Amino acid sequence: MMYKMKIAVLGAGAIGSLFGAYLSRFCDVLLVGRREHVEAVNAAGLQITGVTDRVFEVKAAEKIPDENFDLIIITTKAYDTEKAALSVPPKLRSKALFLSLQNGLTNYEALRRHVPEKNILLGITAQGATFLEPGHIEHAGAGETTIGAPCKSAAQAHENDVALIAELFNDAGLPCRVSGAVMRDVWTKAAINSAINPVTAITGLRNGEMLDVEPLARLCESIAKESAEVARAAGGAASGVALDKEFSQENSEQVLSKITRRNIVPKLTKILIETAANKSSMLQDIERGRRTEIESINGEIARVGAVHGVPTPLNNAIAALVKGIERSTTGTEAGIAYCQGTSRTKAPSRQD
Question: Which residues are catalytic?
Answer without folding.
Answer: 189
